[in-house]
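Hypothesis: this fold can be encoded by more than one sequence.
Test: take the structure tokens below, design a sequence, compare later.
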């Protein structure tokens, strides 16, 4: 899958900070520009997480709605009614971090399943937020194959919470959720007849007999105003079961909640 053009707007600032426990925090920046073609492509990429365009006409049939109405009232979290805005914020952050893992770090990241199987648009999907897979070669399994499990938290409006700490705290639970998340992913792929992808997922279901490298990550997607007031250095990962292989990421950007709402609006209107 080719990288969507908005990936070029995600840039490494080169800034690094250190947590209270000595972990490095990478600081990246999302810097969108007013390019209508790229924004339209991004909105389409965003929409495809909730519904394939090829499936949309059949889903709309019988509802008496337009495509935009269907997306806005059946699939997308509500723009105004709580918890819709916070779910939009959270989904945006997860999808952005998944883009980062797939198109910048080079992992296979089958994330659409997480949103397309959500039956209640006003409720978040349970399990690990983002799962990525990387294989050393195509000739067989290697102990250096990687399973990357990331927790993502968004802070797109004023908050007293350290969202990176929130992501780290949630990441500490991923050793309990990993098996269930991989099984759910495998079940969804089985239903879709994706045999090769099923085999790729099941490669990571028995670490004892089929060793691999496990990497955990915690990310905070922050509006620049929230970033400016967040004491990232106070983040503490002490007690994390995989602290030796824990990656910490912050992606900051301007007026991100406005961008989120605009992306959802464009994704519906251009369907």
């Amino acid at each position: 899958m080719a990288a969507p053009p908005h990936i070029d707007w995600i840039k490494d600032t080169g800034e690094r900070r250190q947590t209270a426990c000595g972990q490095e925090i990478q600081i990246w920046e999302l810097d969108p520009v007013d390019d209508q073609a790229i924004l339209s492509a991004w909105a389409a990429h965003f929409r495809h997480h909730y519904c394939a365009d090829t499936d949309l006409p059949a889903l709309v049939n019988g509802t008496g709605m337009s495509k935009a109405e269907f997306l806005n009232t059946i699939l997308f979290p509500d723009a105004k009614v709580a918890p819709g805005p916070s779910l939009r914020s959270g989904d945006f952050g997860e999808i952005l971090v998944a883009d980062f893992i797939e198109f910048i770090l080079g992992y296979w990241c089958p994330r659409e399943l997480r949103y397309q199987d959500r039956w209640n648009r006003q409720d978040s999907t349970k399990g690990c937020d983002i799962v990525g897979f990387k294989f050393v070669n195509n000739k067989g399994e290697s102990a250096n194959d990687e399973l990357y499990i990331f927790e993502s938290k968004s802070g797109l409006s004023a908050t007293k919470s350290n969202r990176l700490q929130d992501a780290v705290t949630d990441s500490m639970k991923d050793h309990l959720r990993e098996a269930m998340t991989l099984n759910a992913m495998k079940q969804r792929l089985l239903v879709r007849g994706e045999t090769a992808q099923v085999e790729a997922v099941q490669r990571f279901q028995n670490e004892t007999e089929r060793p691999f490298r496990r990497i955990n990550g915690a990310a905070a997607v922050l509006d620049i105003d929230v970033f400016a007031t967040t004491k990232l250095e106070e983040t503490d990962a002490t007690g994390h079961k995989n602290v030796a292989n824990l990656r910490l990421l912050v992606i900051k950007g301007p007026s991100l909640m406005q961008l989120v709402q605009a992306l959802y609006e464009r994704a519906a209107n251009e369907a």
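The chain has ten helices and six strands. The longest strand covers residues 213-223.
Hypothesis status: open.
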